[in-house]
Structures are given as structure tokens and as C-alpha cells.
Amino acid sequence: MPMDKQITRESQIRIDVGLNAAQLPVQIRWEADDQDTNGPVDCKAVLLSLFERESKETLRIDLWTQDMQIAEMDRLIFHTIRSLADTYLKASQHVDLAREFQAFAHYFGEKTGIINPPA
Description:
The protein has about 120 residues and is α+β, with helices and mostly antiparallel strands. The chain has helices spanning about 70-90, 95-110, and strands spanning about 15-20, 25-30, 40-45, 45-50, 60-65.
């Protein structure tokens, strides 16, 4: 096995979802072996995408609690789009497409009031 693919340690990430009687998320907590906090951390949403090696399919899990406000969802989506643009640039080096992602993130941020439009 090539040196760069040799596993030298493992780290686990755990997401616990508390559901109500209607099977809707009312509590989401996460923790990881390498996190700085002691124990699980409460959050209001999780967006998870997994790209399967063999099938080349993407599994998505999008969950949010009932108390997540629209303004909070706007902020989550804004930061997610910005992060996707950064990830895409880093992975692909497609500068023009990454800029388009960033431009849309900026547009979305302005339309949702997360960032102020230019004066």
C-alpha cells in the first residue's frame, strides 16, 4: 500500500438525533474524537453528503430541528455555499466556476440580509 494511503490512526464523528413521536428531529448533538469540547455539542441542523466510492452516488442527509428559525437556515445555507466554493476550488483548481459559486453566495447573502449590499 502506498505510504500516502496507509491508515495511521482513525477518528470517529458521531451525530445523535432525538426524534419526537412524529419522527421529526427535536435535538441534534454531535461529537468527535478530535473536538476541543468535552462531550456532545447541541446544534440545530446538519447537512451531510457522502460520495460512495463504487456506485458514484451521493447520499445526502439534511436534518434540522423544529426550533430552527428561517434566518438561521439562511445563514447555514449561506455559509455552506461559501464553503462549497472553497472546497471546489481547492479540489479542482477551476477558478472560474469557484468564482461563480462565490458570486452566488454573495448574492444569496445580500438577498437574505446576511451581508449588506454595496453602498
